[in-house]
Design goal:
The chain has about 725 residues and is α/β, with parallel strands linked by helices. The chain is built from 14 helices and 37 strands. A hairpin with a 3-residue loop joins strand 9 and strand 10.
């Protein structure tokens, strides 16, 4: 796709010449850009150091290497490497986005993203109401995906401006008179500045309106969806040359009939053998970073910035960790880091600016046990995918095909639809989605599909004739009934990926116990956590033991039961350790579980405030980033659950030496008398005779760090054991 003239103008004025490539031509000659609106230089407290937090979404620590991430490796070697950093559980993007924003766990912040459900409230069955970033009406009867600034704004309004129950790092900085900037991934960047008190640019919009005006005056294009942000006298009209600078291609797929026993009905599978697409969001990230480095940084001089790109997470979801496109995502993100560092140097800011690189979580491959679901070859396509290029990335369907069993191949298993399994077993369960297909439901060693594809010829199941779907229950659609119409003891499932949330508005103890028994018997599920209001349930831990209970959200956004899908941190897919079951979605990579692979994420820091060439071996967590950055800005966040990471600093807040004690926590009593059900049979009729004792329990592995009389707990993993 040719670059628009406005994008070319941006590149021409950028201080990071290596960050721009290609270029289209225009007959029109841009008018000289007017001087930007003056921004008063902030007067930070004495000793405050400009800090940029760059989030590499989904980065595994073992992905830092000389080949794919040379800039990050150099930063790690020259600064501080944190060897034992921890993602907040559940290890989702938005959950950790709130931890970065507030330095807190859900027990304090009250936030549970990625996908959440807000039960109807009061006699009027009130639920939120609003639109998405694309301008479409968003349903809040169903669980909602929160990676969207408009969705977050709607929820924040619904909660009276208290979607986050504690003051954020950005709000703290703004109250001190500091300029802030949040750039990047939809939802994740916005939650840093819910109060809209700073500068903001993501894949959909620009805020405030004055910044959009300035960028247009400087011939810099805007995200195409910005037109949905403003109306009336503030409406934005895009220039004819604007284009869609943040557009990205969908995943490359191929068709397979392996899920139809008759061999005729085809469904789409992600083509992990593809080497043509690279990172489809590469151009969008390059655009946003260039706006930051060539305009926002020199003109607005923010003291605090968060730059959060969806790379490498996006390509890891589509193709899996270790895939060709996944590795291209690493190289793409490393190039952005190189451009940021070059811009800081060109502007004379490199020696006075801290850079903190952190991932929200790591990443696993989606797969069931490899002895049940052997990996399989994908025969590569000899031709390019059939779709158009989108901002330089290929798209569409390739001519790849599914091959035979191959230990060096790819997974075609791991997807689980909790609402379908529960409905088949007599529960009244809903996940808010309609009929769907997935090439990740599982193909056994004999080639038998775990959930065969079916064709709804009449439309009686899916609502439209000739719809393909996969389900074991009598329906393939699980939309949540209208507010006030949920059946007695109904269950709403917020399917999130590596963990699922279960909401039981009736709070019926029998339903809770039956649900827990179901989860314990199905081998796709791992550790189960239950709200403490239901008392001790054998084999489970309470949600307050993993910082998931919040009194303000009980019955109003907090799930009643949280389960991590089962995982194996030793299994290897395409050279990368770690597999897990996942909510259905056809993804080849996932996170969100309580696996040590998902939990153990990346944290690297460099700059004038940090030690040089140092390694921190004491446990740290994503909740520690905000209070540490606040300290660097000479601010304080007393409500944060995290700590200042003094071990990494040249001038620490405390010189005390922390002590660390590891331990494990298990339920007071295991669940007994269970009949375990193999993943190969979703109906539950086939029992796993290799586990004759019928017992289930959990091991929660923790580390407690004590310093200055206060103890901070870090969770390494939670594992279910069946015998």
């Amino acid at each position: 796709m040719k670059m628009q003239s406005a994008w070319a103008a941006l590149c021409a004025t950028s201080l990071v010449l290596s960050g721009c490539g290609g270029g289209g031509e225009s007959d029109a000659t841009p008018a000289p850009a007017p001087a930007p609106a003056p921004t008063p230089t902030p007067t930070p407290a004495a000793g405050a150091v400009r800090t940029i937090v760059m989030v590499w979404d989904g980065l595994r620590p073992d992905d830092v290497n000389a080949t794919d991430t040379p800039n990050l490796l150099a930063l790690q070697q020259g600064g501080v490497n944190f060897q034992d950093n921890h993602s907040t559980y559940p290890t989702f993007t938005m959950m950790n986005g709130s931890s970065f924003a507030t330095g807190s766990f859900p027990k304090t912040s009250g936030f549970y993203g990625n996908t959440v459900w807000t039960p109807p409230q009061g006699t009027g069955n009130t639920i939120p109401a609003g639109k998405t970033a694309t301008g479409a009406t968003q349903s809040y009867s169903d669980p909602v995906f929160t990676e969207d600034y408009q969705v977050l704004s709607t929820l924040n309004d619904y909660y009276g401006g208290q979607l986050l129950l504690v003051k954020s790092l950005f709000a703290t900085a703004q109250a001190a008179g500091l300029t802030t900037a949040a750039i990047g991934k939809s939802g994740a960047a916005f939650i840093q500045d819910l109060g809209k008190g700073g500068l903001f640019l993501d894949e959909n919009t620009v805020m405030p309106r004055s910044l959009a005006t300035e960028l247009q005056a400087a011939n810099i294009p805007l995200p195409a969806n910005v037109v949905n942000t403003y109306a009336g006298g503030e409406a934005v009209t895009l220039a004819g040359t604007n284009g869609n600078p943040t557009g990205r291609a969908g995943y490359v797929t191929f068709d397979t009939t392996a899920y139809d026993p008759g061999g005729t009905i085809a469904i789409a599978a992600r083509d992990s053998s593809d080497e043509t697409q690279g990172a489809p969001e590469d151009a969008a990230n390059k655009y946003m970073l260039n706006v930051f480095t060539s305009y926002i940084l020199p003109q607005k001089k923010p003291m605090l910035s968060v730059i959060w790109f969806r790379t490498p997470d996006n390509v890891e979801h589509g193709y899996g960790p270790g895939s060709a496109n996944g590795n291209a995502g690493l190289r793409s993100q490393d190039a952005r880091l190189g451009e940021l560092m070059a811009a800081l140097k060109a502007q004379g800011l490199d020696t006075t600016t801290n850079i903190v690189v952190v991932s929200d979580h790591a990443h696993s491959s989606v797969s069931g046990p490899l002895n049940l679901y052997p990996l399989r070859t994908i025969n590569p396509s000899a031709s390019a995918p059939n779709g158009p290029t989108v901002n330089g990335a290929t798209s569409g369907t390739s001519a790849a095909s599914l091959g035979g069993i191959n230990p060096s191949g790819y997974s075609f298993s791991g997807d689980v639809r909790s609402a379908d399994l529960l409905t088949y077993r007599g529960f009244r369960a809903y996940d808010g989605a309609g009929c769907s297909t997935s090439a990740m439901y599982g193909i056994s060693a004999t080639g038998t599909p775990t959930v065969p594809v079916r064709l709804d010829t009449s439309g009686s199941v899916c609502g439209a004739a000739n719809t393909r779907y996969q389900a074991i229950s009598a329906t393939g659609t699980f939309r949540v009934p209208a507010p006030g119409s949920l059946p007695t003891n109904g269950i709403v499932v917020a399917a999130n990926g590596g963990s699922d949330y279960f909401y039981i508005p009736s709070h019926d103890l029998t339903t809770i116990r039956n649900l827990v028994t179901f989860l314990q018997q199905r081998e796709e599920y791992g550790a189960v956590f239950v709200d403490s209001r239901y008392g001790a349930i054998p084999g489970t831990l309470q949600m307050n033991q993993v910082n998931l209970e919040n009194a303000n959200r009980s019955g109003n956004g907090q799930p009643d039961v949280v389960v991590s899908f089962n995982w194996d941190d030793q299994a290897v897919v395409h050279g990368k350790t770690g597999i897990e079951f996942s909510s259905v979605g056809g993804q080849r990579g996932m996170h969100g579980s309580f696996s040590p692979v998902d939990v153990r994420n990346t944290l690297i820091a460099s700059g004038p405030s940090f030690r040089k060439g140092a390694t921190v071996t004491t446990p740290t967590g994503n909740v520690d980033v905000a209070p540490t950055v606040a300290y660097l800005l000479r601010l304080a966040m007393p409500q944060a659950d995290g700590r200042i990471i003094n071990e990494a600093l040249l001038s620490p807040a405390s010189g005390a030496t922390p002590t660390v004690a590891a331990s494990s926590i298990s339920p007071s009593a295991p669940a007994t008398g269970l009949l375990f059900e193999t993943p190969l049979d979703p109906t539950g009729r086939t029992r796993d005779t290799s586990l004759p004792l019928g017992t289930y329990t959990i091991t929660l592995q923790v580390k407690d760090l004590t310093i200055d009389g206060k103890t901070y707990r870090y969770f390494d993993y939670a594992k279910a054991t069946r015998q």
